Write the C-alpha cells for this entry.
Amino acid sequence: MVDDESVNITPPAQEERRLILDQPFDADLLYALRATLEAHATHAGMPDGRATDLVITVHELATNAVVHGAGTGRVRIWRAGDTLRCEVSDAGRATRPVAPVPRPDADPDSDARTGTGTGTGTGTGTDAVVADAARWPVEHGHGLWIARFLPDRFTIGSGPEGTVAVADFALPPDGHDEPFGLTRHDRGSHILLELSGSLGDEAARELAVVVREIVSADPEPRLLVDLGKVTFWDAMGVAALITAQQQVDAAKAGAMVLTGLTADFRRRLDALSPAPLTVGDTHDEAVDRLLPPS
C-alpha cells in the first residue's frame, strides 16, 4: 500500500483497461489459482508483499464464491493505468438483491457512501460502498472482513445473477522501494522509534527484534512509534505493528502509542487489529497519551 496522501489514483473505469487474466475456478482449482495470481501480480510490477495481499484477497473471495455460491466462479484482472482491478464472480443466484451499505470504515460525510453496490467497481478510495452479499457471510477479523481492507478500493454486491466482488490494488509509484529505516531515540521518559521507507517483511523482522530488546530491558516500557516517513506498507507491515503492540502489552506496565499515520492507514489498522491501537494525531499528543498522569 502506497502512502495514501502521496498518490491520487484515477478510478480504473475512467482509463483504458487491459485484461491480463480471465480464469474460471472451482474447488479443485483454488490452490493453483494462488500461484497464477501471484505470477500475474508480480509481472505487472506489484512488490512481493503487496502481491501477497492481492493473492490473499482474491483467493478469499474465490473461496467464498465456491463455498457460499454455486461452487464455481471466475476471476478477471485488468491493468488500468497504475491500478490492478480484480473481479471475482460466482455463478450462483442470491436469495434476494442486497441494498448497498457503507463499509464499516467509511467516512460518514463522504459522498462515496452512496452507489449502486452492484460489484461494478463504483467505489472510490477507502470509502467504497459495500453491498454485503447474502451468500458471502462476513465475520469480524476473518477472511472476507480482511479482504475488504487490504485493497485500495473494494465493492461487493449480489443480484439475480449471483455475486460480484471488485478489489482494486494501486501499483506503486517510483521510489516505493525506498529501504526500510528505523532510528531509535532514548528520551528518558520514553523511547521514540522513527520508521521510514517501506513497511513490509524486512520491517516486520527488524521491528520485532528492536521491540523485544526494549521490553527485555525495561519491565515498564514506554514506546512511541512515528510512522510519518513511511512511504509504503503491506499486510506484513500491519502485522509488524500489531505484533509490537502485543509485545509491549505483555510487559508488566508497558505502553505504546503510534503517530504520523494517514487517516486511511489508521482506519485500516483499526479494522485489522484484534485489539485497539493507541494513536496520537500529533507528536505532542502521542507523548501525552504515552506518559502516565503526574
